[in-house]
């Protein structure tokens, strides 16, 4: 049994709540990137990812913060401000840690990416993009049964076994694959939910069983820290409505 988390974005309250929620017997916690950016505790979040020895890949924010040559014009002004603030905060050790992460990780029949199979910066935002990436997955990674992805901060599975992910649920992905699975975001959900989400995965005959876990955390505390840090207020506000 293992867990997969994504898009922590410096939200320590959400990450700590998720780590408390991870069931006993979980052997590993995989991290799909964007440990930092937006939230007020980039170092603390990096330290936790490191101390749990999470196999991790980098997200676009991890790289934008740690690569000073990144053209911030690619980011919206609020994100760019957060990236610049995070650059000031991040220790040299954590900068090095994020800078040297892989962009894609494979373990036997499982693939881990930040954005999509074909491009770590691509957003899988609809069924058409998912279909294109499933085709790439089948062609380039014929052994892979499940590919976990993040980046959109939206819980999703494609092909969809039974519609949108609306509540805590367990899904058997044992036929009809391969599947793309987005665990949702720990630190900045954008699907209208205000709780942190992640998945717990167990092997099942001919596939895996994926359980979504939804975790309440102290949103007000995370918001207060963002405001106190002088980060754009919108980054605090959006945590209250999950957008
Ligand atoms: Zn992100």
Short description:
The protein has 243 residues and is α/β, with parallel strands linked by helices.
Plain-language structure description:
This protein has about 240 residues and is α/β, with parallel strands linked by helices. The protein has one domain: Purple Acid Phosphatase, chain A, domain 2 (4-Layer Sandwich). It is built from 8 helices and 10 strands. It has helices at about 10-20, 40-50, 60-65, 75-90, 90-100, 125-140, 220-230, 235, and strands at about 1-5, 30, 105, 110-115, 145-150, 155-160, 170-175, 180, 195-205, 205-215. A 5-stranded mixed β-sheet has the order 2-1-9-10-7. Zinc ion binds near residues 7, 9, 59, 151 and 153.
Quickly name the level 1 CATH class.
Alpha Beta
Could you state the CATH homologous superfamily? Metallo-dependent phosphatases
Distinct bound molecules: zinc ion
Largest sheet: 5 strands, mixed
Outline: globular
Give me the CATH fold name.
Purple Acid Phosphatase, chain A, domain 2
**What is the terminal separation in angstroms?**
31 Å
How many β strands by DSSP? 10
In round numbers, the mean pLDDT is 94
What is the quaternary state of this protein?
A: single chain
- Total DSSP helices: 8
**Order of helix and strand elements from N to C terminus:** EHEHHHHEEHEEEEEEHH
List keywords for this structure.
single chain, 5-stranded mixed beta sheet, 32% helix, 243 residues, binds zinc ion, globular, 8 helices
Question: In terms of topology, how is this protein built?
Answer:
Layout: E1 2-5, H1 12-21, E2 28-31, H2 42-51, H3 60-66, H4 77-89, H5 92-99, E3 104-107, E4 110-113, H6 127-140, E5 146-148, E6 156-158, E7 170-173, E8 179-182, E9 196-204, E10 207-215, H7 219-228, H8 233-237
Parallel strand pairs: 1-2, 4-5, 5-8
Antiparallel strand pairs: 1-9, 3-4, 6-8, 7-10, 9-10
Helix pairs in contact: 3-4, 3-5
Bound molecules: zinc ion.
